[in-house]
Amino acid sequence: MSLRMPACDRTLGNDVRPPRVRALRSAMLGASGTGLVRALRAGTQVWLWGSRGRSLTLLHAARGLHAGDGRPSAGRGQLERRPSLPAAAIVNSAPRPLQPYLRLMRLDKPIGTWLLYLPCTWSIGLAAEPGCFPDWYMLSLFGTGAVLMRGAGCTINDMWDQDYDKKVTRTASRPIAAGDISTFQSFVFLGGQLTLALGVLLCLNYYSIALGAASLLLVITYPLMKRITYWPQLALGLTFNWGALLGWSAVKGSCDPSVCLPLYFSGIMWTLIYDTIYAHQDKRDDALIGLKSTALLFREDTKQWLSGFTVAMLGALSLVGVNIGQTVPYYTALAAVGAHLAHQIYTLDIHRPEDCWDKFTSNRTIGLIIFLGIVLGNLWKEKETDKTKKNIDNRVEN
Q1: Rounded to two decimals, what is the model's pTM?
Q2: Closest by CA position to 222, among listed 161, 269, 298
Q3: For 362-386, what is each residue's pLDDT tens digit?
């Protein structure tokens, strides 16, 4: 008697093989390319785990194969693809009904909040008195405002783009596009965020309240720019760096054009650098669905453009330092930023989404270096002031 079991009951057309064998065969038949490796791994886990782990493992295998042979794909939604793990864990631990709203305001992806907040810290740091640390109350107040306004901006963006998001696999899971939150619910949620942000703004002086309110038009309209111009990154820069004006006015009561304007300009150049890099992840999908970006405009000339933006950014920051009397630590920080950006641009591979994402997120380090240089440079001023006073006293005595 043969010990070999027939593969199937040909009369009834039913597969009578053991469930583990059927699961392994199904995973292998659905695989192609690098997806075959993933399917084999899934099948092996099914064999080893038995029935308890079978359904979960095959579900992961199916998701991996559906994504396209396991290859990461470019396009809008890279923030969704690689969230910050601690932040994502916090969101996932929140009550389930609250999670879609936290994802709508991108609390699980804080890099955007950092990039909005850091120009505020530069301005607050520069406004500090010589030899003093920045105003910690203002730093915390602007930190709260950055979380709220970035969340409001993301909500507005997703409300405008929900029809586009539904067409792209990576953004189809966004709360509005996926139907987890209705347009009306998102509108009410937006009102709540803006109300809280207004509460933060009202803690500032009247000049800053008016200046902050003026930015609302930019917040509402910048998500539309990618439909009408190849320079949406410029619109984002105008919006994201408003804190470079607001931070100074919150401390000083008004803006000093000799400091605030070049600082604002440097922030805009910085945004053009990091958001152009980010846009190269999106260029294929953007071209397919008719959206525009500097990545599609610059194409293979991207590195030359980024180099120009870097020179303009560092030049403007140097002008800020000269106009406010900054010291050695500040210019040392600018040199470090220049080296960081040079390495970032030189090693950038605009055709690899993973590399673009890594370069994009590394810009948080750039912002922190500038802030540290401002703080240390300001503390250094006290030493120079003391030396100047001693020299004057010595001359008077002589």
Answers
A1: 0.75
A2: 161
A3: 999 999 999 999 999 999 987 655 5
